[in-house]
Amino acid sequence: MVTLFLFWFVQCIHFYINVYLAEGLNQQRTQVQQEMAHRTLEQSVGSWGAVLSAAALQGLFWALAGALVVLLALYWWFKKGIHERDNRRVSDSEESEESEEENPARTNMTWIISKRFQLSVPKLAAKRQVVQELMSDLLQVTHNLFSDSFFPVLEPAIGVGSACEGWSPHKEEDVVYRMFVPLKPPRGHAFHLEPDSMGEVPQRRMRIRVELVCTCTRKQPDQNVLCFLHDSEEELKRNQAASLLHTLCTGPYLDGEKIALWFQTFVISAWSMVPQSHHYSMKVLPSCRSCKMKLMKASGRSLFVETVFGVQQGDSDIFLSSQPTEAQIPPSTTWLESYAVAEAKFFRHVAMQAPAHSCHLKCLRLCARLLKGSGLSIYALKTTVMHLLTLIPLSEWQHKYFLMRVDDIMCYLQCCVEEKRLKHFFFDNEDMPKEISLPPAFHEAQPLNLFQHLAQDPVAQTEALKELDDLQYHFGL
Question: What does the pLDDT look like over 283-295, one tens digit per residue?
Fold first, then answer.
């Protein structure tokens, strides 16, 4: 548009100059004809013509100058319009967190967000839905096959972990969707939780004792309900009934490895019975305490699912998990206390209370990627964000505050490292949402310090502080 206008303007100026020069030549011919008859008058007219000529040239100069000013003004207006339009596009995008006045460090941060961490919440949610439908179908098959058996009753699966919470720090092809399956005792059995002799206070390592329960009172005249306590062994053998104690226990205790192997065998044999078998091929990956599946489409895309088993503590959101941590690999009959279900419930609570397009999940994802390879655990980062979500009003987690919240997270984490103390979120926490149910002992227990190892190892603390300082310097945090 500006180029066309400039071409038109130059053509107009060129035409104006040609007209002016032609009029000047005509005047000169007239002056030559009158020269011999009116020399005195010619001198007077020549002087007057010079004055007019100077005035015309001066007028032409100012006309050109004025036109140039107008042209520059039009160009500035056109560029401003384009700039404002681009800014509106950026501000309307979910990925834009910065204003026009951001400094170079902030520009670098925005580039990192937009280019390096592209795995979005909608993508995670879509795949999580696929996994939930798969688990629902698989568990329905278990109910059909084992309803008359004495294997554990598998409750509906609960999505836990970063992928199901919506903030996985991993690349799309490396994301693992973890599903937590609560176990209930079959009829004629009961679970009793016993503290492990090597446990901590409050107990984080426990064993699950399986006891037989009398079912004679459940018998009806037209039903054949077996009682493992009072029916004879011959009758039990005749009905091919084996108690849970004789299948998935070691001694009187529930064995996590035996349960995992039983479920892995079931998945392999029952895969053709679920609708997903028409769209995916499935491979069970090696695992001692869980069932890991790799689902593959014909296009080559893969989806990883891990099923973990747990036993609920009372009516609370705290479970005992079959899955050991990297730091603790206890015997197969020892189950570790897990807060995964409570954490997933907390993030669902935040999602319902937070404003639309809240940035708390993006903050978690970005900070987790920044801390990858450092000595600080992702769980410590997650705990930090959970604390801040209860300290900072959820209205302050809108996208326009994204980089401010990232600053808050890193500063909070650095202060905790300096003080060598990060309080566990679920112990002695007055800001705990009422929707989360905790065992009574948690309210009276001494808070657990997730940075206790830093208090015991000054070298580890120094390295952690240096890593945080390097991050802040490199990314302008």
Answer: 999 999 999 999 9
